[in-house]
Hints:
The protein is mainly alpha-helical. Helix content is 48%, strand content 6%.
Amino acid sequence: MALRQSLIYEINVHEGVCSLHFDNSFTIYLASMDLTPLANAMSAIDMLPVEIIQALMSALPNVASLKSMALACPSFYRAFNDSQMLITTHVLLNEVDPGILPEAFAVLQSSRVRSWTRQGVTDFVSRHLNIRTASAQSWTLSDALLISKLHFHIHYFAEDFASKSLAFWALEHEVTSPSHTEIAPFNEIVEHDISSGFWRIPRADISDPGHMQPILARGLSSIRSIILANSYQDRYQLMYLDFEEYTDMFLFGALDAANEPNDHVDLEDYTADDELARIKSPFVQDPDSGPADVWFWAHQEVTQSQFINCDSQRSLRERGYVMWSRTRLVEMDVLQTPWEEPDEPPPTQNEIQWEAQKESSYDRRCSIYLSGGSGWWDFDDESKIVWPGGKAPAEHP
C-alpha cells in the first residue's frame, strides 16, 4: 500500500510487523499482534502513543527524514507539531556535530545579510567569529533544513577533497592535484563552447581566476550541480545561467589583500613577542597542534606579506596540509627538513595541445559565432553546432 510516495515510499505489514519505508532508504519497524491485515496499518499507526512517535522522530538520522516523517500522515504531523523545536533540535544534533554548529549558524546568518558594509562586516565578525555562538538552544524546522542542506554539500566537498589530496603520498609522487581535477568542468566549456571561443575565455588558472569567480560565488549547491552534470549541455546550462562578467573582486583577491605590508622580517626570525604581535589567533583553538605546526614549518622563509595565500605554498594547500595531525607529521618526519617549493610540474599532454591550438580554436569558434552558430565544437567534430534554422550558412539556398 503506497502512501504519498514522495514521503513514505511504502507501508508493508508482514507477520505482525509494520514497516515504513521512506524514500531516503530509512525504515521504521512497528511490531503488533493486530497488524496482520494490510488495511489496518494506518489505523495501527494512529493508535501509537504520541510519546512513541516523538521518540521515533527524535532518533531519525537527519532533518530531511524528519520532514518526511512529519508529513507522512496526520498522526505524525500532530505529534511533531506538539514538540516541534525539541524534536528538530534532537535530530539536527544527530546529523551535525555540535562542535561545528557555531560555524554552521554563522553561515546561516550570513546568508540573511542583504547588503554588506565595512561596519556590517565588522559587526558580523564580532558576533559570530570572535565569539562562537551556537544560536539558541532550540531550532525551527526551516532553519534546521537550511543547516542540513549546507552540511550535506560541505560534507560532499570535504570528502571529495580529502580523497583527492592523498596526504603525504601525493607529495612524493606525480599525481593530479585536486584543483586541476575540480576545474575540469570549467575547462571543458572553455575549450569547446562556441561563445567562449568568441569571447576568448582562457582556461582556468589559479593566478587569474576572474572568469571562474562569478560561478563560484553562486555557492556550493550550484557548484556541485555543475560538477555532477550528466552531459555537456546540462553542465553548460547550469554554468551559464546568464552572461558572467570577469571579476577580480572575489575570494582570491580578498585573500591576497588580507596580508599585512612587507616588513622584510621572515617568520624564522620572529621572537616570541613578534609571534604574539603579528600572528593572529585562530577563531577556534584546535586541540591538535599539527595544523599550526605545519603552517609555521611551511612559512619560515616568508614575511607577513605572504602569510595568507602564498604562491609558494600552493602545492601544500592542494594537499590540504593544514589538516594533517601532529601524529602524522611526526610519523612522516615532515618537520625535520625545511620546506622547499617544488619545481613547476611539467604541463600535461592536454595542456600542451591546448596551447598549440588555442589561437586557431578561438579564431574558428569566433567565425562560427559571427555566422550565427552556437553550442559544442571541436576541430574534428562540427556536427554538434546549432545553426539558426538548422542549417549552416553555406547550406542555405
